[in-house]
């Protein structure tokens, strides 16, 4: 028997769907504009303020960006920092989270307090820079990794995930002769795969978007990540556009900016589908249980 839907339920469904559609458009339309503008011709960019579907496709902006001599080196730096940084962060975060999830750990409450405290207050930019410099990490790739190796929120999500697992798993493993590391690597980590995949994505996005740490600690332009180099490309293109003699030499600054955004965004968009099935489960389980 078909259930009768009341007018109130129909009204709610209509307004709810309308709101969600508008919200989706608010998110999608600007990104479509970015992609369309990056592929638009010079004439179209100059003539129109807003582009959703370019009438003439042009790759001039991408050719200009990819013709930069150090673009591929910067891309390699970002890929390396993202890969190594994510591995380092996940090792540190998972080990710390598992340790703090064990109720028998001495001083567990105090360390948890310090973790939460670091979310509210930080040492500040200058003290952090002085620490990094005293460790000899300035102009080192590690300067873009170690200062942000552990994120307090990510650690708490993983800690809550481990806390949600039954204590009987650890007890049974230890009865069979497993050490603490054996329990962690053979039992806990495989069960924490959704949380690991989710937090790995968080860390990967953070390292891929490395900007402030590179600005502060990297003076050697050959060690710049892709984000810093893309910023320099935008600045140079904007400056050259101000010269009348360069108008026909390089694409419009607006097109270059949009192409830069696409290049900086696409790698993470490609990576997301591979962890999508773990994303919601890992984030929710780690955030609501414990």
From TrEMBL:
Cell compartment(s), UniProt: Cell membrane
Any one GO CC term of the record: plasma membrane
Keywords: Cell membrane, Membrane, Transmembrane, Transmembrane helix, Transport
Span of domain ABC transmembrane type-1: 75-271
Membrane topology field: Multi-pass membrane protein
InterPro entries referenced in this protein's UniProt entry, alphabetically: MetI-like, MetI-like_sf
Spans traversing the lipid bilayer: 71-98, 110-135, 141-162, 183-205, 258-275
Matches recorded under Pfam families: BPD_transp_1
Keyword Lipoprotein: no
Principal place of residence: membrane
Gene3D superfamilies assigned: MetI-like (1.10.3720.10)
Listed GO biological process terms: transmembrane transport
Assigned protein family: Belongs to the binding-protein-dependent transport system permease family.
Name recorded for this polypeptide: Carbohydrate ABC transporter permease
Originating organism: Enterococcus lactis
Upper classification of the organism: Bacteria, Bacillati, Bacillota, Bacilli, Lactobacillales
């Amino acid at each position: 028997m078909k259930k009768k839907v009341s007018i109130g339920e129909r009204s709610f469904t209509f307004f709810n769907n309308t709101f969600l559609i508008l919200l989706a458009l608010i998110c999608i339309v600007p990104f479509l504009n970015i992609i369309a503008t990056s592929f638009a011709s010079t004439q179209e960019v100059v003539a129109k303020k807003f582009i959703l579907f370019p009438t003439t496709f042009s790759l001039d902006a991408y050719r200009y960006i990819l013709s930069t001599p150090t673009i591929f080196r910067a891309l390699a730096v970002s890929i390396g920092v993202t890969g190594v940084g994510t591995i380092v962060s996940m090792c540190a975060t998972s080990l710390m989270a598992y340790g703090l999830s064990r109720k028998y750990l001495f001083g567990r409450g105090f360390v948890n307090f310090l973790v939460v405290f670091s979310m509210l207050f930080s040492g500040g930019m200058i003290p952090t820079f002085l620490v990094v410099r005293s460790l000899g990490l300035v102009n080192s790739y590690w300067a873009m990794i170690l200062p942000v190796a552990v994120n307090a929120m990510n650690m708490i999500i993983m800690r809550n995930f481990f806390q949600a697992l039954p204590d009987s798993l650890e007890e049974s493993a230890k009865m069979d002769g497993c050490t603490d590391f054996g329990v962690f690597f053979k039992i806990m980590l495989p069960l924490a795969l959704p949380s690991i995949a989710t937090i790995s994505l968080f860390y990967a996005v953070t390292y891929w978007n490395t900007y402030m740490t590179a600005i502060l600690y990297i003076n050697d332009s050959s060690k710049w990540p892709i984000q810093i180099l893309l910023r320099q490309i935008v600045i140079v293109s904007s400056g050259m556009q101000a010269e009348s003699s360069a108008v026909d030499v390089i694409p419009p600054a607006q097109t270059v900016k949009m192409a830069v955004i696409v290049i900086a965004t696409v790698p993470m968009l490609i990576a997301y589908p591979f962890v999508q099935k773990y994303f919601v489960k890992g984030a929710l389980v780690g955030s609501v249980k414990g």
